[in-house]
Write a structure and sequence with these properties.
This protein is mostly beta strands. Helix content is 0%, strand content 50%. Strand 6 (84-87) and strand 7 form a beta hairpin. The model has no long low-confidence stretch (mean pLDDT 94).
């Protein structure tokens, strides 16, 4: 699993039929300090996340192991909304 911030949404009215009903989010990876740390990725949303939330996502074959993405051609899925995290006993992020 990887940490990321939701920075946007993707709307695709024409798509592979098996993707119907999925919401897509644009994610930007963040480091343990919460700073941007990598490329953006489009991920299917399995938990109802929104823009500006910090999430956990999985990619690759793991992305197809949620109830919403089972047997669907997705390469990334948001599977948790982060409430907070700590590093070495110090809170680095806490959801408002």
């Amino acid at each position: 699993m990887l940490l990321a911030k939701v920075v946007g949404t993707v709307v695709a009215t024409r798509k592979e039929q098996s993707l119907d009903g999925l919401k897509f989010l644009i994610l930007r990876a963040v480091d343990p300090e919460g700073k941007p740390s990598g490329p953006t990725v489009v991920a299917a949303d399995a938990v109802g996340a929104g823009v500006d939330e910090v999430v956990l996502y999985a990619s690759g074959s793991s992305a197809r192991q949620t109830v919403m993405t089972d047997k669907r051609p997705v390469d990334a899925v948001v599977m948790a909304i982060v409430d907070q995290w700590e590093v070495a006993g110090e809170t680095k992020y806490k959801k408002n």
